[in-house]
Design goal:
Six copies of one chain form a homohexamer. The first copy, chain A, is an alpha+beta fold and 337 residues long. Chain A contains ten helices and seven strands. Chain A has helices spanning 59-62, 114-126, 131-140, 143-149, 165-183, 189-198, 203-206, 217-238, 244-256, 272-296, and strands spanning 15-29, 35-42, 47-53, 71-81, 84-94, 207-208, 214-215. Chain A has a five-stranded mixed barrel with strand order 1-2-3-5-4. In chain A, strands 6-7 form a two-stranded antiparallel ribbon.
Chain lengths: 337, 337, 337, 337, 337, 337
């Protein structure tokens, strides 16, 4: 486990003596014709640019071998270039086995406790009453798939884009769907919760996240919606007597969960459960996205972020009301109990 | 109180001896040149067409005076015309004072208990901790305005389009927003709940609902969003020392709650509370709308509704999973506590 | 086999003594309160409205049993109502077994010879050189599926919307794709032809066409694109050592063939083969659609059709140049050889 | 008053000895690690980039204190960098009180005479015949508000984006509306002119323009349309017996004047006056915008501007016909008389 | 000249003894099987439906010959059917030569005096200073073309859709453009006025208006924009030494005057004159359209029209402020002088 | 004729001793204040950036005279800057007459043999049976115009954007249209082929391509569609007795060939020939565009291109199936016979 201050906590001139993950790495020439390496270095809290000049100790030994995904040990300090933070490198070396660091230590990660989240997920799955759906979920979430499922981010950017982000996002949606089922007994609770658990499941094959978040060829050619539908279809076909109508309804939930054709759903929501899942997904995703953008993208000295094209606006951090102590001391560690 | 079976429970050939509200009323000519009155008659459960032929008892005495909003007593039977239910009238008379019926008895109405909903609303308002917001809400929800607020439908069609629909809708949104505040302590709970209470408040002047739901001139020229913003602005201006920043944030919630310019919000959500309110509103509205459409618009003998243009699709009533008895016996009477 | 003139060849006042398929059937009341049945009756050439009055011979014996898909024997004549052709019924009876007629005799049907089209398809399949693709196609086009495949229309309306329409449409696309492969050797011929054969294959489960064209529940909930992808995925999973990359490319062809997200493709074309297939599909579909609309929907006495909303325009039948005899005497019976 | 040549009149190599306004100001590092300040300096005619190197006289004394809005005295010359004009600084100092310069001297400003424009506005207001509207306008245009109103630009960019731009723009719209009233007596002249005067009035709170044009927090959260509506609503509420219908019509003019929901109007124009105001606004704005773009953004040596994204095109300065002397010698100083 | 009251002035039960133009004419059957003719009859003020029953005097003599464009003499009275005015026919006969009536007497017609409008147009043309443009206009507006030009409506529906509507519309645009030239000397006055005169000129071949307004084949296949461009191009090609740049600028005005590609302009406005013409055209068209809709389409007993799809809204006739007598007594007979 | 290796075949460090065309040329300053020239240099295979530093031999003699379209002789080597190839210049001189090189030698050019393509075009023209169309084509393709026609690219970017690209593109469309005529005898073969030949013909005046591809003023103000329509209209007007209906149909083909208003066609396709031509054009253009992008824009070491905004996606070069030798050995030199 890493024992070093987080990048996001450093300010200009702070000294750096850190292991960092190489996220971009390009050999370039200065206008004067000298070689340097343009880097992006990060830990789980943030990433910054850094130029590795050829007169820095260690330059020669790594310049031909360094690749994205490597971990390096840097000394230097926090600096600034054109208003953006930048790392000034004074020495660099590749990490060694004895350093006992892995790329996963440097990826952003859900702030919620993974063990708690796994328990919540499994416990909620146990409460599914319909035996066909419960058995199907147990088959789909085999050990190998579950391992990926609890790690994968919900996306490369925008919302829940960190390790275990998909699990965190899914638990929020389940919580919202359960509330809607409390309000509307007409919604099939088992079905909509099962749909919530599976809706973004295809991301385990659409995205790779080791050492950096990236879309796979399969992900770009098929998309996570169809990948999930095909896996679920496969597992159902292995199950004798799974009801045809239930199968179509469940697949419909997965296929329609992005709500509109232009958002890449091949069908729009046509059932009560489908509209519930789509809107719950939107609620969880948008609130998380705004929260993260406002936390990370405020312009210096301003309550406003830059223009965020995915939202079509800049965002405002009014910072106005502190939630009074007593009312809000929610035990946020578990959503279910 | 009316003691008669609901229209929606009647089937073809059932006899009718009912008080009904006149919702449309046009004097016409048959091709043969005879006068008849084309009516739409309804109770709170449904409305049907009916033709009043000139040889029906009572035709002459009412033909020149009958207007929308009158209540009539009908005898006759349920019939059908071109696949749609229709009322066959055998006699008709205007209601008298001694009948003790008012148009309100015939308007669709929230299925939730109004007293309970009022209590929930007031109780949640009491929990607002910020004194500026709490005091503002108490001023806005004066007795006269509150009386309208608890009656008005959330819309003329589509979702929560029945008496007390706005109150029911608002309570759902509050419930959803409170859940999102549990998950995200960064959201200002008082602010977003206050925004939820006020977001559609302008509908008390945008809509009239007695005797039928209709938009007012003011409503069509200004829209409920700006009406609400102006009332809230007025009340804040009367309050000494209401913080300017809090005022702008609260007005922003009202103005942006429809989420997109093309949905008639003059600004898009730019704060964490605004995106939460918008998405919570969508979730409550869409699920209610789908539920009502599926309940009321299935094609005869089909699991599909007709094409619903507001949703851009037809809808499916799979009717597949019954929610098992024990799990779902939620005390739906109160959403809070 | 039916031996009667086609409906489309009849003009006003022509006598009718025909077997016809019941395509719509509703029991209604006249304003005077008498029962009649509003029908749509058709053969493979066209369909017209007809009212069955209660004084017509045969009315009573069938009024409670007649359903869509029945075949009836009608005497009467061609008439007109409000400018539209209508059938005037003088007598009616249900078809009997001894009449030896089936609904299929009354469905519109491709004008090309089915035997020839089957041969063309099989012969083209035989020419696929890649063994994985060829073997996959042979597995997918099992006898049972092939039987459906050669019958299903390409759609309910718009283009190739007749029995064997999908096969006719597919052969055109193959022909176009082969031409594009002649021009561009960079296109993988086997892959694009295989994609063409499978692209709309899911319609065998999306549509039912016996006795009338209709979408199935599965078709409306999943769509033919995903249905096809799931079947192909299943068959590939049964095949040992089918190359992963080839699988993803083939599935991409199916998924992207409608070209745009808003046309219900969950991914847009990203390969040379995918863009070729999408544009070939468009070319075949649009030309067929325009041809049929211009042939069938001209306003009486005009060279213009009514406004066609799927095309966003009315269409013009200039009828200007006759293709000179010699140049055009193409043996249209076979597209391949 | 400044007595120096305008920036826009200078060409490459011209010497500079000017007071200029600091519009941007960032301390940066060269690749070699030396500090410099990246500036944007402007007068009312134009603004250019300038780099202040650390060896320039005055660098040290100002590097830690210089902020946007300061006025500096520069010596140096006009230069060019990558095809764009740039100021080469040889010496710099902060302005002193004795220099007798203020930021307002450096802001772009309407070319029309402010005194004349004020007279035109007041004179036109005096001609309003309806006493309710006239009195309302007099109350709204209190001295303090009028002072802002005659200074504020109509926007940050695009059209009339200079000091007194809103007043100039408003007078044009009034002129156009009066012409439309001459043509169509059905238009309520008092109402539409009152709407024209108030339509963009909210910009006095939406925009700040001292020392640079910027949107305020309130402006971004509420928008000038709702700000204006709330002020007008306030003033009307203070007026006894202001007709309700007139109020709604006037507010409708303000709310709908951007013409479409997607242009941020919460209602579309629904009255004859509203459509007149919207189209007059468009005409005034677009012509001014094109004129300014063509005057300022031609590519060097070309009759074409670069691509202008707000217009969706590049623009052409054909420069073809000179308006002949006599016909066009309009006394442009006053639009009214 | 007709000497009879206008249809629009008649109310229910008023007797009718009028010549009227046949605008639609269809022979139909009643449900009982009797023939009748469904008519639309109109004069220049309005048009109404009428059913001609077979027992009306004159039915037999005209039933096989009556066509659109005929003039008939009707006796009867104003009636109503389903809330819409309808003409009840008691007798009918075809007009005779001795009646001295022509279809033109029955077409809606500009309310402005045609002689005055012609003078205004010619007088404005005379003021064009540029000899190339002036000479071009004189060649284009040859006697034959000018005759059509002063008659043609500006459209089939929506705005200025009456005889001489194009001329009235063009004069308004010229007036607006001249105002904009007064404000902005940078606009080439001759060019923009020339563009205004020619912009919709192609409508003389796009529309036929005798006896009813209809699009021609050429109009539907080419559109009035390209028709005008081709005529102007032809005339310029006949003129020696017409400047190439002036030609392109003038053609650009015609081609871009609908402002956006999706409004069928093949290029968007790229010059100052083009944006002026487009926005002036919009202003003239929209105000005229709203005025006519509000005058003609109010729902009975309401200040609101039905929903107008071309405007995307219903419209409100607030009818609030009467323009005070003195201020508005504009001599509307001439726009110029 | 040039005898030097193609730029696209060179890799990093390869020596360069080439004639190259100057495609961009800007005199700039380094941060240190030294002059250099930023160049883009290309041959027909590709173009790269190059910086000409002031210490390079030849700098002084050319720095004030070098312009776009010049040919220079360079020595140096292939280098790289920020991941992009760049030319490192060691010496430079202007080409001399004795070098015998012209800019045309350096423009990208169709890979098909121009003589063959010309023959194909002329031979296909000869087969037009309709004498009016054939004669028209012969008049339009006069020697001077034909010379331009066979050289002009089909566009500045995207598809067939090389010398003779329009001819290559047109031949593909003809081939596709002929296939569609084989399938559908209802299509008028002569008309659609004539439309194919003329549809983009206006590009000979819309584009200049010597020495670089650029839009002309006329092209930007009128567009190639209207330019073509005007030329064709002119030629038809010179032809006695050309049928009016045929003229309108042919012009319609040209005007509608971009298929949608928003793609700058002033009318949408309304005839069978027009829809055929539009879709054939799309097929030819899109497949060519994808092919070129995939060939030229793959990211280094990846099977994916960068994001291509005209396609709205990145593209994949699966490179999976090699077309087997025998099947595909199409003699691609001629498309016809």
């Amino acid at each position: 486990m890493l024992n070093q201050s987080e990048l996001s906590s450093l300010i200009k001139s702070d000294p750096i003596d850190h292991f960092l993950l190489v996220k971009k790495c390009e050999l370039r020439l200065t206008k004067g014709g000298k070689e340097f390496i343009s880097l992006e270095l990060g830990d789980k809290s943030n990433s910054f640019a850094a130029n590795l000049w050829e007169d820095v100790a260690g330059f020669k030994s790594i310049k031909n071998s360094l690749v994205v995904g490597d971990i390096v040990r840097i000394t230097g300090s926090m600096d600034e270039y054109q208003g953006n933070p930048q790392i000034k490198i004074e020495s660099i070396r590749l990490s060694k086995q004895s350093d006992n660091v892995t790329p996963k230590d440097f990826l952003p990660r859900s702030l919620r406790d993974l063990t708690v989240m796994k328990k919540e997920f499994i416990s909620r799955l146990e409460k599914i009453a319909n035996p066909d759906l419960k058995s199907l979920l147990q088959n789909i979430f085999s050990d190998e798939r579950f391992e990926k499922y609890i790690s994968v981010p919900a996306g490369k950017m925008w919302h829940h884009s960190y390790i275990s982000g998909l699990l965190e996002h899914t638990l929020e949606i389940i919580k919202i769907c359960d509330l809607m089922c409390d309000i509307h007994p007409e919604i099939s609770r088992d079905l909509v919760v099962c749909g919530a658990m599976l809706h973004d499941f295809g991301k385990i094959e659409e995205l790779s996240y080791d050492p950096v978040f990236e879309y796979t060829d399969k992900g770009k050619l098929l998309g996570h919606i169809v990948i999930a539908a095909m896996i679920v279809n496969d597992e159902i076909n292995k199950t004798p007597d799974f009801p045809e109508n239930l199968k179509n309804n469940l697949l419909h939930l997965i296929l329609s969960h992005q709500g509109k054709l232009e958002y890449a759903s091949p069908v729009v929501p046509k059932t009560l459960e489908a509209i519930t899942l789509y809107q719950a997904d939107e609620l969880s995703a948008k609130v998380n996205a705004y929260k993260n953008v406002i936390a990370n993208e405020l312009k210096p000295g301003s309550n406003w972020t830059k223009f965020i094209s995915l939202a079509g606006t800049d965002m405002y951090s009014g910072g106005l009301l502190k939630n009074p102590g007593n009312e809000n001391n929610i035990d946020n560690k578990t959503l279910f109990d």
